[in-house]
């Protein structure tokens, strides 16, 4: 079953606890406690099984995400989007780092340390600690639930003899990016020196805890001990001890959930996060407005625009996915029966697909507004969450024009809690940006920035949309401000950008030349540099459109270096930036150098199969390749004189010789036939990825048309 069938027809929406696991055996250890499971899929494909935990008012959403802190962070955010959970638990196995913690024992993380943040210096490793405390409310609940031995599962048949019952320790846990299986390794010494309060080590909780803190989710890690991280971890031992450790962790987690407050409508409010703020008072959180008349569809519509609203926005599955208390599927169906449903074409063009829509009832609008005046902000948050969900349900953008006025209306409302409205507007804006509908996305981007609740990414999106609309000076002005603030943020994180975009010679000699070179960078620093590269890329493309090719090349060169440094030479973003840099270089008539940049990318393109794994980047690379080749052929036919530039200590003649040595193509050998072939590839890739009306497809078609015209001219006697 999928998300469209989850809880359809339910008489009451219930609060949700999310449990994340890394391994299949951890997943199955929890899954055995659940009944009546259905499947919910995030738009990215992540699968959650949602079932009942008998004897409790809670539903449990369970996911298996694999090993690693980054997947844990991503899936935590996806769980927040889908369920707005009352609590989140990471349940699994770990290695013990204390002698008194035995195999099968359970460690509840009072704090999670991210152990790979630091700087490796000649004097040794200098730790840069980063950590997150477990939810106080969940820790207190766990202490209550696990105080007695009643939670312990029965020993496996035939294995009870000689086994002591699992003990519970409330201690910090370390989370890294590698498996520790040595009692004398450098990593073991590092952990002992800088994080000597930890009782166990694993590979996911740092990502989960960081994302949970950002999303204001009460979170806790529960780990069963499956090894001692001392060199005795091997397949046979794992097969013996991991199932037992996972079973103990799952039993402890279930015991904690059973002790959570019994009423779903008060459970979330009873939990407080590590910052002490109840979820009902947190920015962006959903709670139940019960002061006035019962919540209805009319209340939701009163927050939206006086315009047709697609019916699927208010479907029972949408209500369930958002998690609106006390608004059941039956209530929604009954309310909608009083409205007139009419079909509206999303584009307004004759023959376009029609979408069933409802509009708010103007006659009762004023009365409804009076009934809910004291809870208006909360109901607007519900409406915004439904709108946010609606964009993910129809990701192709076929009904974006119908959703846009409602997103704008939510942004205009004077609300004390605009976070949900901004999130919904962002989703619609980003969909327009992906579709190349820049003029339609621009008003939303402007309004998001005007709310004062935006961030640098919102300013970046505004600059990108202004560029797409052809407002190049305005785009430059916006992006220069973003670039200055991003540089300031980088300096605040101890990062100097002067002469340090790409890896150093020492980095290349010490590590794989393909990178990434993140040994001396924390994950936060990598994120800062990655955003800097994104801004430089956008600014470089804007300057290219303004024909300021030298400045464009410098910024794109810097972006390529930062992406090489933080993501590696194989990263699609680095390859796209490199191709766009080649476009700026060829406009300066440095043909040999431009082809060298192109041929830096093409081997990776063939090796990585980007057409399958990252089709957008594949299409952009193919388009840039066709554009570079077309510019070279055009320039050659005009009789332009090629330019050469020395690099560092090498004179131009040496650079030219090096370029001819490593580059398989020669500028003078390129023809319109080559451009036609590349143009055809670019058109196919862009049409398949972006659609026939996207500006990228139009640009590819323009290159192909140039090639066709050039071929005809060359064929004339």
From TrEMBL:
Annotated GO CC locations: cytosol
Bilayer-crossing regions: none
Any one GO biological process: L-methionine salvage from S-adenosylmethionine
Compositionally biased spans, kind Low complexity: 265-274
InterPro entries per record: Nucleoside_phosphorylase_d (IPR000845), Nucleoside_phosphorylase_sf (IPR035994), TPR-like_helical_dom_sf (IPR011990)
Listed name of the protein: Nucleoside phosphorylase domain-containing protein
Molecular function as annotated in GO: adenosylhomocysteine nucleosidase activity; methylthioadenosine nucleosidase activity
PANTHER family with a match to the protein in the record: 5'-METHYLTHIOADENOSINE/S-ADENOSYLHOMOCYSTEINE NUCLEOSIDASE, 5'-METHYLTHIOADENOSINE_S-ADENOSYLHOMOCYSTEINE NUCLEOSIDASE
Region feature (Disordered): 265-292, 493-514, 691-717
Domain Nucleoside phosphorylase: 16-258
């Amino acid at each position: 079953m999928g998300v469209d069938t989850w809880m359809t027809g339910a008489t009451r929406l219930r609060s949700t606890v999310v449990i994340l696991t890394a391994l299949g055996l951890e997943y199955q250890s929890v899954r055995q406690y659940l009944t009546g499971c259905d499947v919910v899929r995030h738009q990215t494909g992540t699968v959650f099984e949602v079932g009942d935990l008998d004897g409790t008012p809670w539903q449990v959403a369970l996911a298996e995400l694999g090993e690693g802190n980054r997947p844990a962070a991503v899936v935590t955010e996806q769980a927040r989007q889908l369920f707005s959970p009352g609590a989140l638990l990471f349940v699994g196995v770990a290695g013990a780092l204390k002698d008194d913690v035995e195999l099968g024992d359970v460690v509840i993380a009072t704090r999670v340390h991210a152990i790979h943040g630091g700087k490796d210096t000649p004097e040794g490793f200098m730790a840069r600690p980063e950590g997150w405390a477990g939810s106080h409310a969940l820790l207190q609940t766990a202490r209550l639930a696990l105080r007695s031995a009643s939670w312990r599962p029965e020993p496996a048949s035939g294995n009870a003899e000689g086994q002591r019952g699992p003990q519970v320790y409330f201690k910090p846990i370390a989370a890294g990016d590698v498996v520790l299986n040595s009692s004398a390794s450098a990593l073991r010494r590092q952990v002992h020196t800088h994080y000597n309060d930890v009782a166990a080590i694993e590979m996911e909780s740092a990502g989960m805890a960081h994302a949970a803190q950002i999303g204001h989710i009460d979170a806790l890690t529960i780990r069963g001990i499956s090894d001692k991280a001392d060199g005795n971890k091997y397949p046979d031992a794992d097969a013996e001890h991991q199932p037992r450790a996972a079973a103990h962790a799952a039993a402890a987690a279930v015991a904690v959930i059973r002790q959570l407050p019994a009423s779903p409508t008060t459970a979330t409010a009873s939990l407080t996060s590590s910052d002490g703020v109840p979820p009902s008072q947190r920015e962006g959180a959903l709670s139940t407005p019960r002061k006035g008349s019962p919540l209805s569809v009319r209340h939701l519509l009163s927050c939206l625009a006086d315009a047709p609203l697609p019916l699927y926005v208010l479907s029972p599955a949408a209500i369930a996915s958002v998690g609106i208390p006390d608004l059941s599927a039956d209530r929604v169906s009954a309310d909608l029966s009083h409205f007139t449903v009419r079909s509206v074409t999303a584009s307004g063009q004759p023959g376009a697909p029609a979408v069933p829509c409802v509009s708010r009832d103007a006659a009762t609008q004023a009365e409804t507004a009076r009934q809910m005046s004291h809870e208006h902000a909360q109901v607007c948050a519900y409406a915004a969450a439904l709108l946010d969900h609606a964009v993910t349900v129809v990701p192709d953008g076929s009904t974006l024009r119908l959703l846009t006025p409602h997103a704008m209306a939510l942004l205009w409302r004077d609300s004390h809690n605009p976070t949900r409205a901004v999130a919904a507007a962002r989703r619609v804006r980003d969909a327009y940006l992906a579709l190349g509908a820049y003029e339609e996305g621009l008003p939303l981007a402007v309004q998001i920035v005007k709310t004062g609740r935006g961030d640098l990414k919102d300013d970046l999106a505004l600059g990108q949309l202004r560029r797409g609309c052809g407002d190049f000076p305005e785009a430059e002005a916006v992006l220069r401000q973003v670039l200055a603030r991003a540089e300031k943020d980088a300096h605040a994180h101890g990062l100097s950008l002067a002469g340090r975009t790409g890896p150093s010679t020492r980095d290349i000699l010490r590590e794989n030349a393909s990178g990434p070179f993140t040994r001396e960078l924390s994950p936060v620093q990598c994120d800062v540099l990655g955003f800097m590269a994104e801004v430089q890329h956008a600014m470089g493309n804007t300057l290219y459109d303004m024909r300021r090719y030298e400045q464009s090349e410098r910024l794109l060169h810097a972006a390529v270096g930062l992406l090489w440094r933080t993501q590696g030479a194989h990263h699609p973003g680095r390859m796209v930036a490199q191709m766009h840099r080649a476009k700026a270089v060829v406009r300066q008539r440095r043909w040999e150098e431009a082809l060298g940049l192109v041929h830096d990318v093409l081997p990776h393109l063939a090796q990585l199969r980007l057409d399958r794994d990252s089709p957008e980047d594949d299409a952009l690379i193919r388009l840039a390749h066709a554009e570079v080749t077309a510019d070279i052929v055009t320039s050659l036919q005009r009789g332009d004189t090629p330019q050469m530039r020395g690099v560092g200590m090498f004179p131009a003649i040496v650079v030219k010789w090096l370029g001819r040595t490593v580059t398989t193509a020669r500028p003078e050998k390129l023809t319109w036939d080559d451009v036609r072939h590349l143009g055809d590839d670019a058109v196919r890739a862009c049409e398949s990825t972006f659609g026939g009306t996207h500006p990228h497809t139009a640009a590819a078609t323009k290159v192909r048309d140039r090639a066709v015209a050039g071929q005809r001219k060359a064929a004339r006697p």
